């Protein structure tokens, strides 16, 4: 192969890949709470970071509340408290700003990529004294409901949904350790979307839980909001703060249409033929 042919092939490959790379990810929700002043005892429906992609609406009740705490050097986090035994009406819940539903067709924002950190604060494992923590991605499509869902249960176990089945991963989050939850969802299927989940202790490069090819709860859904719940499994109350949420970031990325991929391959092939 001549020198010209040697340097030409990477150029053709670049032309093939370039159309795919142009579909860059767009941030749809991100906050680290560092720009929110520390405080506690928020009224119900308090809105933080109004009108931005960092907007969070707090749903509170008597004895079920939040606090913004400084964990040192200006590193703020949202802290959960749930000492309300009145049932589901007393849940502390933080909602993201609702966004345009992520498409589940072959066009649009099909890939959801995101992460957040959570720290479990309580050591007791009784179902009546240790509240749980739940993350949900809400589906606004046919039937509604939660498309993705995971939880840190009363006993500290990480649970997740694979389709309609709630599965115990068998892993227990250590008290006082901050973990990064990494989530990816492929929303491009017309029949059954899938997602993956990994759990990594902050400061480590090794996942302690790594799951792939999970089914979403609602097939062919359209995600339009994220929610972080506290004390979802009642009764589960405690006068002490039980968890801290931080470093939330979710993006959506379009998946190239098959026609666009084929065109890119053809264009790359023609370039390779003409130049080489």
Describe this structure in words.
With 276 residues, the chain is mainly beta. The protein has 2 domains: 1-23 and 256-276, no CATH class; 24-255, Jelly Rolls (Sandwich). It is 13% helix and 44% strand. It has helices spanning 3-21, 258-275, and strands spanning 26-31, 39-40, 46-48, 56-59, 64-70, 76-82, 93-96, 109-120, 133-139, 146-152, 157-162, 165-172, 178-186, 194-201, 209-215, 223-230, 238-254. Strands 1, 2, 5, 6, 8, 13, 14, 15 and 17 form a 9-stranded antiparallel beta sheet that branches. Strands 3-4-7-16-9-10-11-12 form an 8-stranded antiparallel beta sheet, with no helix packed on it. A hairpin with a 7-residue loop joins strand 14 (194-201) and strand 15 (209-215). The chain is globular. Residues 1-22 and 259-267 have low confidence and may be disordered.
- Outline the low-pLDDT stretches: 1-22, 259-267
Range of strand content: 35-45%
Structural category: mainly beta
- The strand count comes to 17
Radius of gyration: 22 Å
According to CATH, the fold-level topology of the largest domain is Jelly Rolls
Distance N terminus to C terminus?
10 Å
Q: Give the integer mean of the pLDDT values.
A: 84
Task: Assign the CATH class of the largest domain.
Answer: Mainly Beta
Please summarize the sheet with the most strands: 9 strands, antiparallel
Q: Helical stretch count?
A: 2
The H-and-E topology, N to C, reads as HEEEEEEEEEEEEEEEEEH
Tally of distinct domains: 2
Helix content: 10-25%
């Amino acid at each position: 192969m001549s020198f010209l042919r040697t340097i030409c092939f990477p150029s053709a490959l670049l032309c093939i890949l370039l159309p795919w790379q142009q579909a860059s990810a767009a941030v749809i929700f991100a906050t680290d709470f560092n720009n929110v002043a520390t405080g506690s005892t928020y009224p119900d429906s308090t809105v933080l970071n109004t009108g931005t992609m960092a907007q969070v609406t707090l749903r509170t009740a008597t004895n079920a509340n939040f606090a913004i705490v400084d964990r040192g050097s200006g590193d703020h986090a949202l802290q959960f408290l749930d000492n309300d035994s009145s049932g589901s009406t007393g849940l502390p819940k933080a909602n993201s700003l609702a966004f345009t539903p992520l498409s589940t067709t072959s066009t649009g924002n099909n890939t959801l990529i995101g992460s957040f950190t959570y720290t479990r604060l309580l050591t007791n494992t009784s179902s009546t004294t240790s509240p749980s923590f739940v993350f949900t991605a809400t589906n606004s499509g046919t039937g509604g409901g939660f498309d993705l869902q995971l939880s840190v249960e009363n006993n500290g176990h990480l649970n997740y949904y694979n389709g309609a089945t709630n599965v115990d991963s068998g892993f227990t989050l250590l008290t006082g350790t901050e973990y990064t939850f990494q989530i990816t969802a492929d929303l491009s299927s017309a029949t059954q979307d899938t997602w993956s989940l990994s759990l990594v202790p902050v400061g480590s490069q090794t996942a302690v839980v790594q799951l792939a090819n999970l089914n979403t709860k609602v097939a062919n859904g359209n995600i339009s909001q994220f929610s972080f719940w506290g004390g979802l499994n009642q009764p589960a109350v405690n006068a002490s703060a039980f968890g801290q949420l931080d470093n939330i970031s979710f993006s959506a990325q379009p998946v190239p249409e098959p026609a666009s991929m084929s065109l890119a391959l053809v264009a790359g092939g023609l370039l390779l033929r003409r130049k080489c």
